[in-house]
Every structure is written in structure tokens, then in C-alpha cells.
Amino acid sequence: MHATNTTRRRFLGFGAAAGSAVLFGTASGGSTAVAAERGRRRTGYPDVLNLPNGFHPAGIGIGPAPYAYFGSLLGGAVYRASLLTGKGRVINPGLGEGYYAVGLQVDERQRVFVAGGWGRLITVMDGITGKVIQTYEVGNADTFVDHVVLTPRAAWFTDSFNGQLFGLPLGPRGALPTRDQVVTLKLGGEWTQGPSDGLTATGIAATPDGSALVVVNIHAHGGSLFRVAPTTGDARRIDLGRATLPTTNGILVHGRTLYAPRMNDLAVLRLDPTGHNARLVRTVTDPRFETPCAAAIHGNRIYLPNSRFPQPPQPDLPYNAVALSLPL
Questions:
Q1: Pick from 59, 105, 107, 76: nearest CA to 248
Q2: What are the pLDDT digits (tens) for 228-239?
């Protein structure tokens, strides 16, 4: 299960390529950019969460408690930071070189669900101790488990290279499934898979009414969203008007608002309840953005980790997450 150096370079190289691509393209939406620092409310909480040097985050999860969780692309460690003080610690060191912790989410029981990238692992761990509760090996040699969303009945994960999702059905009181109960859901309908050497499905969320899933496709139509039926895998393109999401990774749906980080801004879209269409309502900019890659909300604040793509990761490179006050 240990990823080879070749596949590790393949993923990291893609991140640089994606970052470079957006520098030369456009992400139109017809809205006026909004400087997020205007009217930023002072809550006493730190506006920046500093992560360990060389940590290289790609996702963020926040549960009911005031803690943010981050996974590292360099070794798969998981870091927990207090939203009250900004201080944190590594609660799980990961499996070492060649392993990843990409997207993650936290449930009401303070369990952390981690997408394991090339390692093909889905990991569920205790968010307080970092102890691994269960692991699931999924997919095939080309699988990249990218991002995750928690719904009342399942945890759903994207596979960026194979046009499929993985589901962990949750039983009463959030009981985890056995390994043979993991669902592999093939994406069909209007889904378009990109070239074999590039990511396609990245971020994932649920529609406001909970009837379907929302999946990012950074290949189709210049970067788009698809509404996916969780029972059949039928995927239908969501009408975004003129908006595109060419470098979006993690997404967040909060109420009827969808937050989609892009290269150096945050697209804020308004979804209809069933997730069939959305419209870009504003583009948020902030001088602290360095390729934000995911989003999570706690109270009246939204937190975004900076991946710093296309800058290659280095052990001594500083990383952080920034907080903005809501409403934006």
C-alpha cells in the first residue's frame, strides 16, 4: 500500500500544474471582488492558525468542539488546532513518506474521517487522542482518495482518477461499517472523466436538502459541479451560469451557500435547495490567501487552509489557515 516515489511526484506535480494553469486563465462570474478584510469582526479568536512547517495541508475539518483538524500531504499526519488560542499539536503522525491525509471531516462524536490520497486508505480516528478506530482500503492502484463529506447516513469520499465515490454507510448512533460493507459508487449520467494523468473529482458536499451529493469536476466545462444521486451514481451538471471552478479542491455547503476556494479567492455561490443550479453571488479576496484549498465553519467564522500551490512543498516551508468573519 506504500505509494511509490513516482506516484508521489505525479500528485505533487499536478498541484503545481493546476496552480500555473489558473494564473493564465480566467474564472468569470460577473461579480465584484470583495476584500474580506473590510469590516472583519474582532471576536478574540486568532485570525491565523499556524501549522507546523512543512505540513502542507489540503483539507480542514471542524466538528462541534472549537478545534480545527488538518491533514498533511507529506506523510499523512493529522494536526489539531484550538480555535480559541491558535495552539495545536499533531495527534497522529501518519504513516510516513509516500502517505497522505487529504480531505477530512469531523462528526458530532469528534471522530475524524480522513481521505488517504494515493495510500488508498480511508481512516477514522479519535479526534481527541488521535487513535485510529478503523481503516478501509479502497479502490485500485490508480485510486486517489481526495475529499470527504459526512451525511446523516454515510461518509462519502471522492476518487479523483476513476470516476467513482466510496461510501461508508453509518448505522445507528453512527456505527461504522465493516470493511466488506464499503460502497463503491460509479459515476454515470453526464459525468466526464478527465485524462488519466490528471485529477477530475476533487471536492464533495451535500445539497441543502440532503437529497444528493455535490461533486467538483475540475476537468469538465472549465471547472464545474455535478449533482450525484447517492443511490445510483447518476451525475447531472449543475447550472452555474458563467462561473467556473478550475482549481477548486474542497468545497463547503452551509445552508444554501456553497463556498468554493479557488487559486487566490473564494467563490460564494447560492444553491437552490435540491442542488440543480447555483449562481455566483460574490468573489472574496484577502491578502492572506495563498491558494486556499478547503473551508470549514465554526460559529460566525469560516476557516481556509492555504496549500501554497504551485510552490513545491519543502520541510521548512511555513503553512497556515486563515479565518474570515461571516457574513462575508
A1: 59
A2: 999 999 999 999
